[in-house]
Amino acid sequence: MKNVLLGVVILGMSCAPAETTDACKGRTGGDLIITELMLDPEGTDTGGEWIEVFNTLGTPLDLKGLTLFTRDTDGSGSKTHVVRAGTAPARGYFVLGDVRSGPNPSWINYSYADGLGSMGNARGVVGLRCGQTPLAEFTWNTAARASRSRMLDGAGEPSSAIAAVEANYCDTPSGNVYFGNNSGTPGAANPRCVAEATTGTCVDNGVVRPMTAPQRGDLVITEVMASPAATSDTTGEWFELLARAAVDLNDLTIQTTTSSTRIDNMPCLRVDPGEYVLLARSADTFVNGGLPLPRHVYGSLSFADTTNQRIALTRGDAGIDEIALFPSASGKAWQLDPLKLDPGSNDDPNNFCRAPARWNPDGGGDYGSPGVENPGCPIADAGMSDPDACVDPISMVVRPVRRPQPGELRITEWMPDPAAVADTDGEFIEVLASADLDLNGVSLQVGSSKTTLASQGCLAVTANSFIVFGKNGSSAANGGLPMLQGIFSGSLANAGGSIVLSGFDGGSFDAISYSGSRSGASQQVDLVDAGVCDTPAGVRYAGGTGDRGTPGLTNVACP
């Protein structure tokens, strides 16, 4: 009985391959070099990792019996696998892979299955040895990038001296895709390493350097095509910037009313003072309406066509520029008056006009001047000396001003003492328009200071819309207010004061007096019973992160 059991034990032990030195006679360190490994493939690591070795000899090298090993850099987690078969060609490559089931893919020469588990993405050691004699070893302390292999620089012939320095390895350039979204060159010579940017840097002609971040006013939005007619919105939208300083566009965030995107480029997107910079959804002239080559393609960001909208440039928490635009006309870009190319003037949508000329040399296509200086804005030649006439922002035709009638404008909310920002930036007054009308000639008086809205363009508002007046047109500076219809002078006294809304002829539309205020809370009119109260706790603007209030929205009921 004992002999039988012993035989069973011996038989079971003989199934596990043992390390052997038979195939290693005459082998020395440097015969093999680890030239590439995939540490963090797309999806789960299991089944997708692999290790590439290079045979430095002028003759084929039999790998049978060699031990493949991996461990952490502190020596823990050691795993080994004895190679059962395989020959690395003379001065050629051989790839060992973590294939758990099915046939090997075309880039894997040999599967070690689950013998090594998963290699460490952040750090580790991998190598091949004959018995206890190391033939090849690579140690990494730089974390892997997802879906990109770690490779020895392909600038020269692989050698053990070069492979001994981790700095001679890099992440395979992302354009070298071998499967799915995975970049690598398993079984083939490696490309050259290229300079790659890290946080706060970009690559300038192959050299990594710090980015030059724009400050407020260094970039001015000068033109926007929100509704192309020659092609679809998804390929034909674009906008233009004027650079007022030498800066990089990298890391800028572009925000519209409905979406945002970040310029996440590795090459430096340098712009120079006086340069007009085109950014577009597509660089393909066959689908983008024949645009010149844009400096950056931002993809899926979208503009509004038929409604008022805001477009902003930010970098981190810093606001760079912001504009407000009226609804767009099909096939015509909104362009900033070339006499008003500053970050203050482009805050006023009335300083933008419909582009008067087409950009294509043959006179076809849409209207605009992408990437070049804007032509002069058309000047209406009739009616502008008449205070009862204005230029319609949609049709660009002179028409009579639609004066508000008594009862059609009503003061509904005011913020004397914002807490999120200073009073000089965050005060606001909200007015409800109950009919389609123009605000041209309407005056807003705060205490003894009076502001009258005046423009050649028709300051049109629609029925049942809430109009917001404030102190600062930048939402980044005013606490996250919606688009302002106008900037008022004077100050809403925290201890109490008055607001008067009057017409062109001096007649009053509405007036309120208030006594005292609560810091960080607007005062509002209950639209049902006309009572006045502080905006209830928990009702906040700026996406729920700002002060208490409902600027531009229907007031909540007073408690």
Written description of the protein model:
The chain has 559 residues and is mainly beta. The chain folds into three domains: 14-183, Immunoglobulin-like; 219-375, no CATH class; 409-534, Immunoglobulin-like, CATH 2.60.40. It has a six-stranded mixed beta sheet. Strands 24-23-18-17-27-28 form a six-stranded mixed beta sheet, with no helix packed on it. It starts with a helix and ends in a 25-residue tail after the last strand. Residues 1-21 and 379-384 have low confidence and may be disordered.
Record keyword descriptors for this entry.
559 residues, disordered N terminus, Immunoglobulin-like, 4 helices, mainly beta, six-stranded mixed β-sheet
Number of helices: 4
CATH superfamily of the largest domain: Lamin Tail domain
Spatial arrangement of strands, main beta sheet: 8-7-2-1-11-12
Helix content bin = under 10%
Q: What fraction of residues sit in β-strands?
A: 25-35%
Overall structural class, as computed from helix and strand content, comes to mainly beta
Task: State the gist of this model.
The chain has three domains: 170 residues, Lamin Tail domain (Immunoglobulin-like); 157 residues, no CATH class; 126 residues, Immunoglobulin-like (Sandwich), CATH 2.60.40. It is 4% helix and 32% strand. The relative contact order is 0.07.
Write the layout of secondary structure elements.
Layout: H1 2-13, E1 32-38, E2 50-55, E3 61-62, E4 67-71, E5 79-82, E6 87-88, E7 93-97, E8 110-111, E9 124-130, E10 133-140, E11 150-152, H2 160-163, E12 169-171, E13 177-179, E14 182-183, E15 201-204, E16 207-210, E17 219-225, H3 233-236, E18 238-243, E19 247-248, E20 253-255, E21 260-262, E22 270-271, E23 276-280, E24 296-297, E25 309-315, E26 318-325, E27 334-336, E28 352-354, E29 389-391, E30 398-400, E31 409-415, H4 423-426, E32 428-433, E33 437-438, E34 443-446, E35 449-452, E36 460-461, E37 465-470, E38 486-487, E39 496-502, E40 508-515, E41 523-525, E42 532-534
Parallel strand pairs: 7-8, 23-24, 37-38
Antiparallel strand pairs: 1-2, 1-11, 2-7, 3-6, 4-5, 4-9, 9-10, 11-12, 13-14, 15-16, 17-18, 17-27, 18-23, 19-22, 20-21, 20-25, 25-26, 27-28, 29-30, 31-32, 31-41, 32-37, 33-36, 34-35, 34-39, 39-40, 41-42
